Amino acid sequence: MAELIRDTAFGHLVRFVTRGKVLPYAEDRDPSLWKEYLSEEKTRRMAHHGHPGQLSHDEPSPSSGASSRTRAGSDSQNINSPTGQPIDQEKGRDMNVVDWFDENDPENPMNWSTFKKVFVTFEICFLTWSVYIGSAIYSAGTETVVKDFGVSRTKATLGLTLFVAGYGIGPMLWAPMSEIPMIGRNPVYIGTLAVFVIFQVPTALPTNFAMLLCFRFLTGFIGSPVLATGGASIGDLFPPKKRAYGIGIWGIAAVCGPVLVGGFAAQAKGWSWTIWELMWLSGFCLVVLFFFLPETSSANILYRRSRRLRKLTGIENLKSEAEIAGEQMTPKDVALIAIVRPITLNFQEPMVFLLNLYIALVYGLLYIWFESFPIVFTGIYKFNLGQEGLAFVGILVGAILVM
């Protein structure tokens, strides 16, 4: 249990307050372990040609133990002390690259126990369900929105449309941010979910219809990260041959959010109670994730490991591979990655563009159903709002059959 909690938001807070005395890592107990976490191969590459990546075919191998300048007879060349690799004076850098200590490193999410992987997958599914239930849960109260604000049914459906528009746009900002090693996935998940929960209050208590629509869009935008990165989080845990199963289960959580929820609340208390339900559910999810969702980004885990090792040993050139790459990035580069690149990728890569069109079509059909259900089952078949929610069970059954 300590290993699960240590890498959560709560675990980080406890370690910060106690200065690492509670929930310690192995290197906290024995700082000399830094040598076990050193990737000799990548460190040699850094000394030889200045980056930890593979060599090109025309470059000499660093394993030869000497650079071009050493072979030319230079006696004053610096040496990387852990590996003994001479540092090329033109291209090389004296950098110790922190990595997994071997392929079975227990901190690597790929090596977590089956229970831990299943539990984290459940948490990602729970987060997805808790947020995306907020789209169609609103449709159950559309009729009471019409009565309370004196608007047409067409305008009332904007509460659903703008929420979906928000969580369609949001991932273009939040998803790239979660890939930055210095940030990771958890701060994006926890931070946006906290704001999502808070924003449900003004959504449920609007002073006018425009305020309702504004906060519906904002909650969709703020709550959107898991739509794009939920699959990535599951991909952090499983090898390719098993990844499809986890992502398939996660997909069911995304699609089946509206099933059985919202109709009975709207029938008893009106549309605002569907929003209160959403706040209670997402608030409970926030508590669960704060205490029990560990970081799954391997780049972020290694980044924090290198920071700990530098603090414990005083060796300033201990850095992870992603951290070394990030040193070359300016704030402008980060902004381009987070904002511009997703947009350009969409229009410059035909496969990405066509896949996005297909997903847009599927989502469009899905939400047309959500809005047509009240018209058909309430208007024609005389279902009450609670019974109308039962009509969504067909979506759940279909998703399970597709699995």
Summary keywords:
403 residues; mainly alpha; two-stranded antiparallel sheet; 22 helices; 4 strands
- Please indicate the percent range of residues in DSSP E strands (runs of 2 or more): under 5%
Helix-strand string: HHHHHEEEHHHHHHHHHHHHEHHHHH
Based on CA atoms alone, the radius of gyration comes out at 26 Å
Largest sheet: 2 strands, antiparallel
Order of strands, main sheet, comes to 1-2
Mean pLDDT: 85
Oligomer: single chain
* DSSP E strands, number: 4
Between the first and last Cα atoms, what is the distance in angstroms? 31 Å
Low-confidence stretches: 64-75
The number of helices is 22
Instruction: Decide which structural class fits the backbone.
Output: mainly alpha
Overall 3D shape = elongated
Helix percent reads 55-70%
